[in-house]
Amino acid sequence: MKTLSKDLLDGLKVSQVEEFNALCSIQKFQSKSLIIKDNNLINGVYIIKSGICQVYSLEEDGKEFVFTQLHSGEVIGEMSCLDNKPSSANVKAVTDCEVYFIEKEKFINFFLKNANFAINLTKIIINRLRNADQQIERLAFLNVEQRIIELFKSLAIENKGKYTIQQSISTAEIAKSVGATREMCGKILRSLEKRGAIKFEKTETIINLKKH
């Protein structure tokens, strides 16, 4: 299981990693299928092997508000397993996904007897809380263009000075993530593209941080 979260297993002995691997099974989800439904108890933890997942909530009018997207190696459902409370958000597959799944009881037992694993998981949760705080701050204090730019920065991967988002992202998905209308986001995206700040290609979006 080389694609299990490096952060989650950082500092563990080979024997501990092998033990954790043995506790996991592989599940597959087709694009757009629901992995976790909000306000439901879940019976285990998921670690993304391949694909992209989206964490979101549904507003009263049925519109989606996207909190974040998760990629290979990231963990889903750990908070509900630890506090034994229902999930606070929906999680769906954006692309076809394969995930490692570990049952709740096995996950808790491994957590309790492996200090490094517990510390690593705590760091992951703290990082997510910080990201959530930053998202709240963006919604409160930034205009829509600034929110879009910050969204792109959070999704982009740097490689040799080139920043790219390694998947296509629709205007509708951007609008859900930044709390704005699709029409307004479309207008801003066209402006950013005209200024050379972003470039849309078939399989990726290229970000030019110097031109926004």
Mean pLDDT score:
86
What would you say the CATH architecture of the largest domain is? Answer: Sandwich
General shape: globular
CATH topology label of the largest domain: Jelly Rolls
Total count of domains: 2
CATH class of the largest domain, anyone? Mainly Beta
Distance between the termini: 40 Å
By DSSP, the count of extended strands is 12
What proportion strand? 25-35%
Structural class call reads alpha+beta
- The succession of helices and strands, N to C, reads HHEEEEEEHEEHHHEEHHEE
CATH superfamily name of the largest domain? Jelly Rolls
Taking pLDDT < 50 over at least 5 consecutive residues as the criterion, the unreliable ranges are none
Radius of gyration: 18 Å
Please count the helical segments: 8
Helix content: 40-55%
> What's the story with the biggest beta sheet?
4 strands, antiparallel
Give a quick set of tags describing it.
alpha+beta, Arc Repressor Mutant, subunit A, four-stranded antiparallel sheet, Jelly Rolls
Notes on the structure:
The chain has 212 residues and is an alpha+beta fold. It has two domains: 6-140, Jelly Rolls, CATH 2.60.120.10; 143-207, Winged helix-like DNA-binding domain superfamily/Winged helix DNA-binding domain (Arc Repressor Mutant, subunit A). The protein has eight helices and twelve strands. It has helices at 6-9, 14-23, 78-83, 104-113, 115-141, 144-155, 171-178, 182-194, and strands at residues 25-29, 34-36, 44-50, 53-58, 64-70, 75-76, 90-93, 97-103, 157-159, 162-165, 198-200, 205-207. The strands form three sheets. It has a four-stranded antiparallel β-sheet with strand order 1-8-3-6. Helix 7 (171-178) packs across helix 8. The longest helix is centred in the middle third of the chain and has 27 residues, at 115-141. The mean pLDDT is 86.
